[in-house]
Amino acid sequence: MKKITLILAILTVVLASCQDKNAYTIEGNFTENTFDGKMIYLQKIDSMRAESSSVIDSVVLKDGKFKFKGTTDGNPIMGFISVGKLETPEADSPVGTLILEPGAIKITLEKNAVSTSGTPRNDEFNKVQTAMNKMAALYKEVNDAGGIQGVPDANSRMQALQEEMQKANFEFTKANMSNKAGEFLFYSSASMFTMEQLKELLPLADSTFRNTPEMKALEKELNRVVPEVGQPFADVQLVDMTGKAVALSEYAGKSKCVVIDFWASWCGPCIQEMPGLIKTYNAYKAKGLEIVGISVDEDRQAWLNAVKTHKMTWIQLADDTKSASELYGVNTIPHTVLLDGNGVIVAKDLRGAALEAKIAEILN
Hints:
There is one protein chain. By secondary structure, this protein is α+β, with helices and mostly antiparallel strands. Helix 2 runs antiparallel to helix 3 (154-176), helix 3 (154-176) runs antiparallel to helix 4 (180-189) and helix 8 packs parallel to helix 11 (352-363). The chain is elongated and about 70 Å long. It is built from 11 helices and 15 strands. It has a 7-stranded mixed sheet with strand order 10-9-13-12-11-14-15. Strands 4-1-7-8 form a 4-stranded mixed sheet. The protein has 3 domains: 23-118, Carboxypeptidase-like, regulatory domain (Immunoglobulin-like, Sandwich); 134-223, no CATH class; 231-363, Glutaredoxin, CATH 3.40.30.
């Protein structure tokens, strides 16, 4: 009997030790005390194809504060905190995102900002949160000013913040690609990564994630042959401003130097490039420069209005079927492809002074 009691005591200690190892606490607070008495939910999304979230725990907010306690299975996941469930949160309430992992996690929810800390991954994830908070603040500033024209440096600030967000997302995802938290961020942020970054991240995922239909499709896309520097341009069908079908080959290789410029009316960095591109076009058109703008806008009228507003006098085509973007591996814009007089690609993704210098090198 004593031996059985001893074994049970040892098992109790071992189980308690395992629970402590995987235990977490989440202490949170709302800086605006307007949701007291409301139910706060800690939730997760079980898979990328899930149509709703799963509730892990819930508590009532008191004095702007709340606390959750629980245990994990040891695999970090993305957790979501909201007033009301994630699908139907309370009006004007912020939604917090954190990494659910063992340890003491802290989260602060402001009206337009969220911050996390307390555990290694949440400290790192806060770099992503910080970039998102800055972007939210800029959007509010632009909105309060009545539009982007009311904030003179909005475009340059937006570009810098996009780069900051991309860097933070990539670094966190790379460090966590083998766990559920990293998988979720990869899936939700993939559109902001370059082809090279995607190729770097995918092999870091476990086999289960890589074998999902979405990841198989992405891997197939990454392995697709894209026309590269030193190779001839690839022809593709586009649409001109009158709605007529036009082949890229009608312009590529027909001038001493052709710049293919993928852009959109809604793309701040693209629009920011236009004054410099206009200056370059005017300076080198007579020497044999041609520019072929390829819009990825889904709104045809927005595309046509932007061409007129920004005085873009060069050839304008639309990638209405997205076949050109797919063929040239365009994941982010602006994206440029520079051709010589033979239609051979001599450079990609040049902008500003670097693009002008390469044009001058070809034409002078």
